[in-house]
Design goal:
Rossmann fold; binds magnesium ion; 15 strands; alpha/beta; binds adenosine-5'-triphosphate; Glutathione S-transferase Yfyf (Class Pi), Chain A, domain 2; six-stranded antiparallel sheet
Length: 374
């Protein structure tokens, strides 16, 4: 059984519609109910800032800061984490133009937001992800990379270094500076980062596929078949050095074409995640709305289990409106599955009765107009 990571305190100041709120939590699941616009998703978003990045809405810091606040927002959390009890403080001072997110762990400024992953892993599922399978590939790539990140925190650095190298190549090509030595230096770097990125994605998908193989028969959710496409398809079982050479050669060959296109046409930044409904042998985009949702829920829960198995700690789950559109039996099965992961989950809904099957396994909080009540 993986160990539990749980939040025991959450304090928000000038975050979205919360001027100031302080929650005491025990280690059970947290159910947040309240009317539309009460602040349920905002609270989840605040928790999502305990992972690197810009949270589950990918919002700008000025959007997150409460309207009418004079200087930025702050979030403070206490948790029983992967490295014991820890206090995490984060926020942004929007009066400072260079406003980047500040982070303190046990009172000490953190060098990088990646340090958060030493203490907890977070996974989320929100209604805005409902169009994941039918929408554009960039959203799926982001989703895929978030899955990789929750297992391998170095993935974010690789991806941003790749982006930076690619931007400098694009700039040189744009300026028609076809200096072979300079370009091939950048392309070598892109090749080693890009292949490492693609292999990390493939490795995560292989692990996830194996776990789905082992568990799907007992799951009330459909099994997903996962495939990486759009860049060196099906090549990633070959040695990395060969793939790097191949990708570097591909880049060198496509300089004029890329210059004409104004961008780099081949690379891990063009990859896509293909998802199929296994039992139905149908691509996810062609499944019904409910089937797509069920696939996504199944995928997130399988990934949560994978993270728990590999790190020894269950990830904290943020499941926004997870119970909507599910019948009573499916809801109860879902709660059992979430509970069996052994971690703490935050769940929201407009109606408390929908969560009654959780019983004593959760603490129930009511959210109204930027305030939270027991
Ligand atoms: N920066 C901000 N300052 C003040 N209020 C904000 C800010 N950003 C968002 N809000 C408000 O916060 C309110 C609560 O939003 P939230 O998305 O958390 O609601 P919710 O409880 O999840 O509702 P629903 O059930 O409709 O999903 C909204 O009315 C929104 O306008
Ligand atoms: Mg909401």
């Amino acid at each position: 059984m993986p160990q539990k990571v749980s939040l025991s305190r959450l304090k928000l100041t000038d975050f979205r519609n919360y001027a100031s709120v302080s929650l005491s939590l025990d280690d059970r699941h947290v159910v947040l109910t309240g009317d539309n616009g009460a602040g349920k998703t905002n609270l989840m978003e605040a928790v999502s800032f305990l992972s690197p990045g810009r949270g589950l809405r990918r919002a700008t810091y000025s959007d997150v800061t409460r309207v009418g606040a004079t200087a930025g927002f702050s979030i403070f959390a206490e948790l029983d984490g992967m490295d014991g009890e820890v206090e995490i403080g984060t926020g942004v001072d929007t009066t400072d133009d260079s406003a980047s997110r500040r982070l303190r762990i046990n009172g000490t400024p953190a060098k990088s937001a990646d340090e958060l992953t030493d203490h907890l892993r977070l996974l989320w599922l929100t209604p805005s992800m409902d169009g994941l399978f039918t929408g554009g590939s960039s959203e799926r790539r982001r989703f895929l990379d978030r899955l990789v990140l929750s297992l391998d925190p170095a993935h974010g650095r690789r991806a941003s270094d790749f982006e930076r190298a690619m931007r400098s190549r694009n700039k040189l090509l744009d300026e028609r500076r076809f200096d072979p030595a300079w370009l091939s230096g950048i392309e070598q770097q892109m090749a080693s980062l890009g292949i490492a990125m693609a292999m990390a994605r493939q490795e995560m998908l292989d692990l996830l596929a194996r776990l789905i193989d082992d568990t799907h028969e007992s799951s009330p959710f459909p099994a997903a078949a996962l495939e990486l496409a759009g860049f060196m398809d099906g090549q990633f079982s070959r040695p990395a050095v060969d793939l790097e050479d191949e990708y570097a050669a591909m880049l060198a060959d496509s300089r004029y074409r890329d210059a004409a296109a104004g961008r780099t046409l081949e690379g891990p930044h063009r990859a896509d995640l293909l998802v199929r409904h296994r039992q139905k042998q149908m691509e996810a985009a062609r499944c019904s709305t409910g089937e797509q949702k069920a696939l996504l829920v199944g995928l997130i829960l399988a990934h949560a289990r994978l993270v728990a198995n590999l790190t020894g700690y269950a990830p904290v789950l943020l499941l926004d409106e997870i119970a909507a559109h599910l019948d009573e039996g499916r809801r109860a099965a879902l709660f059992d599955l979430i509970d069996a992961l052994g971690g703490q989950a935050f769940m929201t809904g407009t109606d408390r009765a929908m969560f009654s099957a959780l019983g004593e396994r959760a603490q129930f909080l009511t959210v109204a107009d930027g305030k939270v009540f027991e």
